[in-house]
Amino acid sequence: MNRPEWDVRETDLLEFDPSENQQVYDVDLLSAGLPRVKATATVNRSRGSEQELELLKATILLVHGVQPRALLIENVPDLVTKDAYEPIRDDIRSELDHLGYGHMWFVVNAADYGVPQHRLQGVLVALKEDALDAFHVPPRLPDPPVTVGAALRESMATRGWRQADEWAARANRIAPTLVGGSWERGGADLGPRGSKNAWARMGVDGGSVADLPPAIDFHWDPTLGRAGMVQITVDQAAHLQGFPADWRFAGRKTARYRQVAEASPPPVARAIGHAIADALNAG
Questions:
Q1: Using CA atoms, how far apart are residues 22 and 18, in angstroms rounded to an integer?
Q2: pTM (2 d.p.)
């Protein structure tokens, strides 16, 4: 919908065959935002975990057929930092070494790249041969991210809500990790109890997502509980993820919110993408 000229496929990654899609050969970048991988110790207890691990392995196997100049995988930070994931990292290391790729694991926080949200991401970057020597983790921006209140104050006031300034002063911190709307959780909300509590401290009801910003006569009083709290909209959630205002999401509210909540913030992708491009251009 946003890139109608792109060749977009909806297909099973496990069934994708590069030999039948030879236009992917030798691309500059193979990038994957995969379902969240669980530690090896949990795989035997969960079919879902096994499927997530299969998708990660399938992505590494695609490197055999595609031979990209660079590989980028984004996943949970634990994949980078926790000992329980060491067997997975070892398997990936062995495959990439065999294929002649140097690689690097690191963790980034979206808040360090201008996103008004604490959001940790585990990242793998691999480049052919010695190109990794020219790759550098993108530096943090010097300015702190804006607060939730500053980011959303204007949109909260679009229908004339009189308490937008008062609310913005209360929401004077960055957002917790924007989650929720997963298939397991059902409808759109802002995540588990800890996330909802963090939103409540900013006077936001995290139990649902609004269709519209508050009306002119909405009475905001967090002491009344959920009934006295404001809700954010899908468009506002997208703004907290760093999406440009003209980016469109398809479907009804819950479907659109899932697309937002499960996304990688575009400013983080931009920073890592430029770092990879700089490394490739240096070669």
A1: 6
A2: 0.92
| Residue 122: both structure tokens together | 């585990």
**All residues at 6 or more sequence positions from 45 whose CB lies less than 8 Å from its CB, including other chains:** none
Q: Residue for token digits 């430029």?
A: 274
Instruction: State the architecture of 13-142 in CATH terms.
Output: 3-Layer(aba) Sandwich (3.40)
Supply 262's token pair.
Answer: 């499960």
The one-letter amino acid code at 191 reads G
Outline which parts of the chain fall under CATH 3.40.50.150: 13-142
For residue 210, the model assigns a pLDDT of: 96
pLDDT in tens, 231-252: 999 999 999 999 999 999 999 9
CB 35 within 8 A of CB 74: no
